[in-house]
Write a structure and sequence with these properties.
The protein is α+β, with helices and mostly antiparallel strands and about 350 residues long. The chain contains 14 helices and 5 strands. The protein is globular, with a radius of gyration of 20 Å.
């Protein structure tokens, strides 16, 4: 991606996140605008960036031919948000009617932290149930309503409901080591520290395994703003240290502070420029859950051996930043994905 396009993208994104004035804006050509839009689409930030366009002078705005495409895309995002809200409301009522303790993870809760919640691209609907008994009961309710349940490699259940993927989680976080789980599972989920740790670990898992886009980093940055003043920063730092996540958190915080310009990070550690640059380039190249990565001929690289090469590259850096306990877990996830991809190819 051209430097001019990258700079313009980040200026729009920072405005959309923090409502800050855009300064020193440089005009973009039609092709540069198209590249910017494609990049936003790859990172599922089309709706979020749309909110920043109104702050640009009229003669510096996106070309009308692209703007029409943008408006249509944002309308779809708004419709999707409404559909998710309806499903969540219906399901929450169903869980409460049966006396189940169900908590919504990320998703609409993260959207509520944005200036325009309806413009945050929705992902899956993720439910966490406080006990195995409630989890099984929720699965039974979904099956009774005609949903076809499938079990993933982590033992969680997912299904389609009105075209939306719904997941029932046994755990509320992605901690991949016993050490981290002991620390995190001791926290009540509604606590700000738990919410911040949940998003932190979710990013770590996907950066190391298959890739993750900028939307999840934006979610975490906005969570820091949302919970600002509601938690003890020293306690959060101690929890991260106890969980073996202190080094990783230093790299992550550097990304949030220097790339997204989040002012709500309590402590920004100095990390080697090369390491931060690697993380920035990797995330930018990944796109949403790794779907943007392209091969030399423009074909998407999603095969088993691509996953293996990507994992090896990531491991070299994250051996310094991620807890050692994570590596075995990450390895098993990569191998599992490779096996599934190779099986799909054989079937085809």
């Amino acid at each position: 991606m051209q430097t001019e396009v990258k700079d313009a993208f980040l200026k729009l994104l920072r405005n959309a996140l923090w409502n800050r004035p855009i300064e020193d804006w440089k005009d973009l050509s039609l092709q540069q605008w198209k590249d910017l839009y494609a990049f936003a689409e790859a990172h599922t930030l089309v709706g979020t960036l749309f909110d920043a366009l109104n702050t640009l002078p009229e003669d510096n705005n996106a070309p009308s031919e692209l703007l029409l495409t943008w408006v249509v895309a944002v309308q779809r995002i708004e419709d999707e948000y409404a559909r998710h809200s309806k499903i969540v409301g219906i399901q929450r009522a169903a869980w409460e009617k049966r006396g189940l303790k169900a908590l919504l993870l990320k998703g609409l809760d993260s959207a509520a932290m944005y200036i325009v919640p309806e413009h945050r691209k929705c992902g899956d609907i993720d439910w966490y149930f406080g006990s195995d008994e409630d989890w099984r009961a929720a699965n039974a309710i979904a099956a009774e309503n005609g949903c076809k349940l499938e079990t993933d490699s982590d033992g969680d259940v997912h299904y389609l409901l009105s075209g939306v993927v719904v997941e029932h989680h046994r755990r509320w976080n992605d901690a991949s080591s016993a050490r981290a789980r002991r620390v995190i599972d001791a926290l009540p989920l509604e606590k700000p520290e738990a919410q911040l740790l949940m998003r932190n670990i979710h990013i770590l898992k996907h950066v190391m395994v298959g890739g993750i886009g900028l939307r999840q980093f934006c979610d975490l940055a906005l969570a820091y703003r949302y919970y600002d003043g509601l938690y003890d920063s020293a306690r959060l730092e101690n929890l991260l240290d106890e969980a073996g996540l202190a080094k990783w958190n230093g790299l992550l915080n550097a990304f949030l502070a220097k790339v997204l310009e989040c002012d709500y990070i309590d402590k920004v550690n100095e990390v080697p420029d090369a390491d931060l640059e690697w993380l920035v380039e990797t995330v930018f190249d990944d796109g949403n859950f790794g779907k943007r990565r392209q091969g030399a001929e423009g074909k998407e690289r999603r095969g088993a051996f691509t996953l293996l090469r990507s994992a090896m590259s990531r491991s070299l850096l994250f051996l310094r930043y991620a807890p050692r306990e994570y590596m075995a877990r990450i390895g098993s996830l990569v191998i599992g994905r490779m096996k599934r991809k190779m099986k799909i190819r054989l079937v085809k």
